[in-house]
Amino acid sequence: MNLPDLLTDYTLRNVALGSALLGVTGGVIGAFTMLRRQSLLGDALAHAALPGVCLAFLLTGSKAPLWLLLGGGLSGWLGALAVLGVLKYTRLSEDAALGTVLSGFFGFGITLLTLIAGSGDANQAGLDKFLFGQAATIVAGDVAVMAVMAALGLGLVALLFKEFKLLTFDPTYAHTLGFPTGRLGTLLTSLAVVAVMIGLQTVGVVLMAAMLIAPAAAARQWTDDLRRLLLLSGGFGALSGVLGALISATQANLPTGPVIILVASGVLLVSVFFAPRRGLLWAKFASRRRGRVLREAMVRGVRP
């Protein structure tokens, strides 16, 4: 597939647009979760969305994406509140809280999915695709829903950029200034749920965490400035989504969601090795250069 195909093919265009929206939103919001050292939160939220998808199907009897995404979003949000509640009222560490919620919600979701599969309801066919995504089923209406959710998430980030920045880097100082750090933290977590909702149909609950982590981690290798980090992270996410959609379209049985994650992982690897200052090869080159300069200085110093 090439650019003309992207512009003219209905299915590919929708998949590419949906993947790009996921990449931008996941990249920007994932940057905050990464900087707050909550990268695993995205994994917990994505897995916590599965029982909501199943319950939405059981209650409505429909596989309409809007209802399933709303169910998944509500379930993911409840999972986030569960994590925050465990951290607040127990002595469990953050990783233990995340692991407990992730396992509990995901186990409940798999149980519901198994029950639905054995119910004999012919309409349930394909519901398990939410595990790894079903990008090929995205239509123009789904893209419109994704665009609204992306606009909501990115709009709130733009509106509350200064507050989120202060909360991310110095929450104690933000609290002393009178900012509602608790509510701001909950809002940031809720925005991660929005990103998960966008990604459920594209990459699924199992792979969604990568779209919150990989673009942000790649962008972090290139800059120390938050604004540039957000722009790069969103750009890397969008690039991964579109390239993944194009590559998967070249083969009939190549799944779009996993390919998008592979592209995002490739972007991260390139950044880790080749980014200026932080890249491994750059650091090795700089180390050799410093050693050479030091040796030359020592030679000049012993000359008469």
From TrEMBL:
The chain crosses the membrane at residues 12-33, 40-60, 66-87, 96-118, 138-161, 198-217, 229-247, 259-280. It is a multi-pass membrane protein. InterPro entries: ABC_BtuC-like, ABC_TroCD. It is found in: Cell membrane. The keyword Membrane applies. The keyword Cell membrane applies. GO terms for cellular component: ATP-binding cassette (ABC) transporter complex. One of its GO terms (biological process) is response to zinc ion. Coiled coil: none annotated. Its main location: membrane. Keywords: Cell membrane, Membrane, Transmembrane, Transmembrane helix, Transport. Belongs to the ABC-3 integral membrane protein family. PANTHER family: ABC-TRANSPORTER METAL-BINDING PROTEIN, METAL TRANSPORT SYSTEM MEMBRANE PROTEIN CT_069-RELATED. This is Iron chelate uptake ABC transporter family permease subunit. It comes from Deinococcus arboris.
